[in-house]
Specification:
mainly alpha; 12 helices; single chain; globular; MetI-like fold; 270 residues; 79% helix
């Protein structure tokens, strides 16, 4: 009983450490003054954010665009790579699997510096393209790891049943394998989008003039002092994150039902 109470105490304490700063941020986004002294409720920082913060919204569009494109690219590459690693045997497979996990533990600053040196060596101009390449590079291992974990639980007899019914490899891939691991693919995509959207260290090294993403823009503003506009922007991002989390859970439940129905259909045919 004491162990349960102790565990509960530390869980509540950790949640307080996480949520108290968020609550303070939300409260002071409605503060009428710029300082950390409460001067009354106001929405003026939200008005300033929407009406007079073009640079922030430009950086926001860059971040969203790069996050979606790099997320899609890394998800496609990571999914196909995971399927190949899981089901095909070839020389050096174990070494390749080990290498795929190395980027997960390499510090971001090392990745950023190495990519900067690479782009400087081949004289590739820094900008949105280099940010996209960098984000796709560090996203692929995360997607690969998630898909591989999903594939380890996959019942390969379903694929064999599809082959017995006359399915080609392409049909088995598109109509059996991918639908079965779709929740994992969605999770990998969302992780990739999140990592890309909030990345600062790697982006700091590979971004060129006029290609600042939202984290870089916020950093440049924070250097001059904490602005209530950033508080207002953070509250909006928190709201978007909550909506995406809730919608993702609902989508995964729907996909799980569809996948279960397809698997039952295959077995009923057999």
């Amino acid at each position: 009983m004491n162990k349960r109470r102790t565990s509960l105490f530390f869980f509540i304490l950790s949640m307080l450490f996480f949520y108290i700063p968020l609550v303070i941020l939300i409260v002071y986004s409605f503060n009428d003054g710029k300082s950390m002294v409460w001067k009354g409720f106001s929405l003026k920082w939200y008005r300033e954010l929407f009406m007079y913060s073009d640079n922030i919204w430009k950086a926001f569009r860059y971040s969203v665009g790069i996050a979606i494109v790099s997320g899609l690219t890394s998800t496609i590459i990571g999914t196909l790579g995971a399927i190949g690693l899981q089901w095909y045997d070839f020389k050096g497979k174990k070494y390749l699997q080990t290498l795929t996990y190395v980027p997960l533990v390499i510090p971001e600053i090392i990745l950023g510096v190495s990519l900067l040196i690479l782009f400087a060596t081949i004289k590739f101009e820094l900008g949105l393209t280099t940010i996209f390449i960098a984000h796709t590079t560090f996203n692929i291992p995360f997607v690969l790891f998630i898909i591989l974990s999903r594939l380890e639980e996959f019942d390969y007899s379903i694929v064999e049943a599809a082959y017995d019914l006359g399915a080609t490899e392409w049909q088995a891939l598109t109509k059996v394998i991918i639908p079965a691991i779709l929740p994992g693919i969605i999770s990998g995509f969302l992780i990739a989008v999140t990592l890309s959207f909030d990345d600062f260290v790697t982006t700091f090294f590979v971004a060129g003039p006029g290609s600042s993403t939202l984290p870089l823009r916020i950093y440049s503003m924070i250097r001059l002092g904490v602005s209530p506009v950033i508080n207002a922007l953070s509250v909006l991002l928190i709201g978007i994150s909550i909506i995406l989390t809730l919608s993702t859970k609902s989508l995964q439940k729907v996909f799980d039902k569809i996948i279960s129905w397809k698997i039952e259909k295959i077995y009923s045919i057999i």
